[in-house]
Amino acid sequence: MYMPFSYKPLFRLLLERDMKKTDLREAIGIGPSTLAKFEKGENVSLEVIDKLCTHFGVQPNDIMEHITQSKVKRG
Predict the structure, then answer these.
(1) Which of 1, 17, 30, 62 has the fewest Cβ atoms nearer than 10 Å?
(2) CA distance linking residue 42 with residue 35, whole number of Å
(3) Residue 27 in contact with residue 55, Cβ under 8 Å?
């Protein structure tokens, strides 16, 4: 199934900041199901995106990227 978003930039940011996913959950107050959505590339609410941007002091494109179907087909 095609998912239009990738949160690889978020996971790179976590590595750079030496943070575990559980640390992130506690820091911004999200549940395990929301964290699973990031791992699956599923949609999350803008409220969660706002919490992430505020916590890290970044813009949305620093934590997620839009993947077009043409990129998926090319590999």
Answers:
(1) 1
(2) 10
(3) yes
> Within a 10 A sphere around the Cβ of 15, how many other Cβ atoms?
10
**How many residues are given for the chain?**
75
- φ and ψ at 71, to 5 degrees? -65, -40
Summarize pLDDT for 29-74 with one digit per residue, the tens.
Answer: 999 999 999 988 889 999 999 999 999 999 999 999 998 876 555 5
> Do residues 64 and 10 lie in contact, with contact meaning Cβ atoms separated by under 8 Å?
yes
Residue type for position 41: G
Helix/strand/coil percent split, the chain, to 5: 60, 5, 35
